[in-house]
Amino acid sequence: MVLWERSQKAVKADGGPRDMRSTRLAAALLAVLSATAHPAAATAAADYERLLNGAFDTGTADPWWSSAGVTNRVTDGELCASVTGGTTNPWDALIGQNGVPYETGQSYTLSFDAHATTAQNVVAAAGESVSPYRGIASQTFALTTAKQHFTFTFTSTLDFPDAGNGQLAFQLGGQPSDNTICVDNVSLIGGVKPPGGVNPNPTKKVQVDQVGYAPGLPKRATLVSAETTPQTWTLKDSAGTAVASGKSTPKGADTASGDSVHLIDFSSFDTPGTGYTLSVGADTSFPFDISADPIKKLRYDSLAFFYHQRSGTPIEAQYVGDEYARPAGHVNVAPNKGDNDVPCRADIACGYTLDVRGGWYDAGDHGKYVVNGGIATWQLLNSYERAVRTGDASAFADGTMNIPERANGVPDLLDEARWEADFLLKMQAPDGMAHHKIHDANWTALPTRPELDDQVRRLSATSTAATLNLAAVAAQGARLWRGIDATYSATLLTAARKAYTAAKANPAKLADPNDGTGGGAYSDDTVSDEFYWAAAELYTTTGDAAYRADVTGSPHYRAAGLNTDGFSWGGTAPLGDITLALAPNGLPAADIAAIKSAFATVADQHLAYMERMGYATPYEGADGYVWGSNSTVLNNAQVLALAHDFTGAAKYRDGVFEALHYVLGRNPLSTSYVAGYGEQAMRNAHHRFWAHQSDPTLPTAPPGSLSGGPNSFLQDPVAARLLVGCPVQKCWVDDIGAYSVNEVAINWNSALAWVTGWAAEQVGRPGCEVSYNAHRWHQGQTVNVTVKNTGKTAWAGWKLAFTFPGPQQITGGWSAHWHQTGHDVTATNLPWNHTVAPGGSVHIGFTASGSGADPTAFTVDGKACRTG
User: Fold this and answer.
1) Active-site residue 322, yes or no?
2) pTM above 0.70, yes or no
3) What SUPFAM superfamilies has UniProt attached to this entry (predicted)?
4) What does pLDDT average to over the chain?
5) Can 289 be counted among the known catalytic residues?
């Protein structure tokens, strides 16, 4: 993946052009006679350019791919392919571009400049990029050491009008010796249908969350209408009976979507059920539920994604079903070269090999990347740590997830995170640094099942960023496993300390931005944020003064780096802030309060522009929607969720659910970006195994998999041809070839898992109300607290949480287990007041020293309560 970057590190896209998709044209192309060319017809071809980046002015080869034995480099404005000799057939060595549109019976003219280090013949071939690799036309050209201009006109016998499986390739093989062939100004013009257009997915006029709305929370939809007056809407149940109606609120033109929109608010209707629809005139929405159940299910399906992505172990049918079961990948079983003895790239020559079996495949390819694995693992672990400290950790207990470790006595979320944490440990070099990534020496074809990948595997160089990711996650893990597996905790902490020391000794060893063959580069030219994050985790776990000094001395301290651009694998400082705000440590209370206040400030900024949007989402994208925009939406939703945790304000909770509504269908494409959720949900993720679109014997994306989402920079051939001129929220298509908008990634699904885990917790508990009455006396106070169940379901256990704004210190309590850490207080039920019936209350209390102000926000099991 070659990362597209904006000027600010914090807003780097979470992905990039990962692979050049080298799917060769079969030998059948050579059977197409050169007589299919019609030189006289060249002037009849329309000037519709069918190729992308044919002049290589971008400085990169993307989207041109190369096959095994060929290395592409852009040199002096030309694409130069270094070809290994000794092949038999011309098609044994290829460079090409997929997604090229052709129309049957139309004329096309290919033109290009080319030369070679040693004179040889090459074949230019047009045809199909997937089996059965049907050919359209081909012609042989004699290259010399001098640059020459070539043209070739032909008529298409196949039809790929919408950038489907068409391909243009140069066949460079069949030569006894190594050679270098350079091409430039490659152009293919012709046809009757210009590239570009609109997303072909059908859209609705009434846009809803296709999965559902939670009872007791706001319920909003978007109507696409140019009418300037309110429109009548009708809510119908599954039998088609009208159950509510009202008037829409016109909002006018919406920049992000390009639509003229109205807001529909049907929050007043709160009856649980399935199959509801909203109608305005003749236009009807997709069906949806009013229920807490879908978000609870998605919490686990989003986590199941990680088991699907495991490397080095069979994915078993008993956990995923027959459709998704597969043998272990990259375990040295032919044709795999395997991950048990992987050397460094030849240009690094590190002098050792590493056993790096295991871990998660990062995305739709077979690469494994420490910086992506770092933030993804941290997000899963943080979800667990937050639940332990302020929420409901029972949701992640042993046996809650469908994974092989579900009966080992360890919380399942920790088991899944350990699969990647163990891999991160394996990526540590003898000197303490961590290798940036491990992947194939060349890009594999699409599709390629993991166990059938025949590419050799190589370690990239160590980097400071990767080393600090290891330090941060290992320190975080050491804290969480301390009371579960002391030996493993100690192993993690030793690795974390060693990595942090190594990073300080090598503070500017940056990943090579040109290391993008066979795997994404993931380059990162600023690592002060990773230093802050790692120091925060190490200090929180150990309390060591040296780590504390690095935290408080960082320019990122007190959430200085948090803004509406959010966080990503390339901008990790807010991860340190989150840990410092959630986990007990010895930092000044005023500094922790400042961090929490910063989250509320940024959350307010999100809410302000969500209020103006036609499809409310915490991502304004004023400069365009970037690669992995859905992860940006969800990471910003995490900021909103934490603002709710820190303040108890319902507006932030509501903002989180608005973000989920956008991801699950209330968007201008009427599409749920989560596979398996919604009437029109993503199916054709860019993935080498979930590749049903390319091979009907393979599955579609499994339920709970998150698409990267709209990317207005159109960084793949399918998107670039189909979506020219798209408004930012419409720059998406459900196509396996559209990798810049429809790939999946572990650090995108970790964001979905964190947010859905938090949201499921909010809807999993009925309403609550807290009355807090303090009676002050000299140097202290006595406090009586009443906690009332205002919902419709009995509580089976409860935990009250709040934060003292002042210096109070609890000295004793009654009718609950009271615990205080710093300013944070929890009260947990006793056996005799474990159950609280609907409408019932528990009366608890405590004495405290100090005379600070009363707390203003309370939660029960992580859900905010009204104050009485």
Assistant:
1) no
2) yes
3) Carbohydrate-binding domain (SSF49384), E set domains (SSF81296), Galactose-binding domain-like (SSF49785), Six-hairpin glycosidases (SSF48208)
4) 90
5) no
